[in-house]
Amino acid sequence: MSIVAHFLESFPLPLPYGRADSATPFLTVTRYLLFATAFSLAACSGSPRSIPLVSGGVDTFEDGNHLNAVEHPWEAIAEGAGTRASIEVQPGGFFNISKHHLEVVGVRPEGNSGSSVAGVRSSIEEFPPAADPSRAAIPRDVTGYSGLAISLRGTPGTYIIQLASASVTDFDNYNAYVEVSDAWAEYRLPFSSFNQEGFGTPVPWTGRDVTSIAVFANLEGYFDFGIDDIRFYQD
Fold it and tell me: Looking at residue 227, what is its pLDDT?
């Protein structure tokens, strides 16, 4: 448990004015001082501070927009000469009752697939507080989960599911490979199936500082694929 989480459990913050709170003024001040101390200690620690992803849910796309469950947008990724990608929320999905899913369409030129990346990505970090918008976003702690579940269908071939970490600074993030067909299927990927590619500095997986989730096509030429019902799961 993080320093901040321990203090919040032991000394919950008082409720805002106008709501019932039995704390005396002395206890109120004491709690705020403890809260500030916890954040100071966390800031001085060697590892990035993080916030648990409480529900485990990332996106069902049922709201019909491009924002995930923590209000970050999904973004088309196209890196490399001749690479293209676009995204659109469309009707239907993995379940018969699904209203929407995210559709990704793109191209990876033949012959230079090793230097091109095409797909979609979204951050799951905690937004900086409104009172301090210049502060960096805070990574998520997913150690309470066993892995990532995602539903996919698309141009048959290999796709990469990527989890990025704040501890990785050279883009050698953690990838898991799945074989996708033109029929919807759910993929439950334990964290042990995510590995770095090896071109960067090795960083052991901890699950304590996850910053984003991405899906990339690992095939050449035209592709399209659908994404639905993304969540972290517990065994």
Answer: 98
